Amino acid sequence: MRQDFFGSGKLAKLLESVAPLRSLDVGARGIPAKTMLAMAWAVDAVGFEPDTEECGRLNAYYAGPANNPFRQARFFPVALGEGAQGRMLYLTKHRGSSSLLSPIESRTEEFMRGDYGKVERTSAVDTVPLDRFLREQGLAGTVHLKVDVEGLELEILHSAPELLSSSLLAVDAEVAFMQTRKGQPFYGEIETFLRQYQFMPMGFTELHCWRRLSKSKYPKKVKGAVPFSRGQLVHGNMLFMKKPEAVFAQSPRQILAAAFIAMNYGYLDHALYLLQNEAVQKNIYAAGIENLTAEIRKVSLTQYHHYRKGL
Question: pLDDT tens across 67-119, in order?
Fold first, then answer.
């Protein structure tokens, strides 16, 4: 167990009592999401990356204890989708933009990002619904899902009604405000769908605005005819969390898990509200927490310090 959790040893003890918590990372290319790193020692991470080369790199990298912040981490070379069928994976020059949806190259070129839409090669893959995969692999009880798959987010959510209506407490999903791929859903479609399962939008974890004459981001000044400009809102990542009334209908462990996920994302007053529920008071006292507000205050001030340091 870590000695503290954002400055609170008592909350670390409480987190240890509900570990392990399972988190899914769909579209796991690159490095793990920073939002889960503070509690990584209590998390079993399961990743999905249909690019077999990248999936192999991830498994090799995280096999080394020095590289793996999680309790466990494993990655599957699996493409998720609403049905079990053959699909085409479009591998773009900018690999992070690869998708099962065909890119609109002319759209990305408009914003100085032609490499995002330039297909270098394709790869045939077979998709599998997320619910089916979790059942077959015995991965019940997932509480957190990050899904960032360049336009296929809504389709993957459609493939997981069992997960959405049972243990899942948080969805960190990439959302689009402009189509850069054929058939790509917009933000509103994802929000409308998740509300059916009692999820509410909490806030953006990432936000990306594109300029037409530069890849540089606002407020950076560049050379050229328009040195300083805001960009158009194109895409971002939105955190959705289960509504409190839906969380309170679940077990004490689920309530605690929801609170810790909220803390990781910086929603500390929301976490305090969840932890004040009567159902988890025995768990809180067992962790030696006599003054819950004081412990949350420690976390709040620690996160504020991290925020100020990062400015």
Answer: 999 999 999 999 999 988 999 999 999 998 999 999 999 999 999 999 999 99
Reading the block at residue 199, the tokens are 């999820």
pTM exceeds cut of 0.85: yes
Q: How far apart are CA 141 and CA 273, in angstroms?
A: 23
Are 99 and 90 in contact by the 8 Å Cβ rule? The answer is yes
Q: What is the DSSP string of 39-104?
A: GGGGEEEEEE-S-HHHHHHHHHHHHSTTT--SSEEEEE--EE-SSS-EEEEEEESSGGG-BSSPB-
Q: How far apart are CA 245 and CA 239, in angstroms?
A: 18
Check whether 50 has a pLDDT greater than 60: yes
Q: How far apart are CA 20 and CA 45, in angstroms?
A: 10
Interaxial angle between packed helices 268-275 and 252-264, expressed in degrees from 0 to 180 and rounded to the nearest 10: 170
3-class SS of residue 265: coil
The beta-strand segments (E) located in the chain are: 21-26, 43-48, 72-76, 79-80, 86-92, 119-128, 142-147, 170-176, 199-210, 232-242
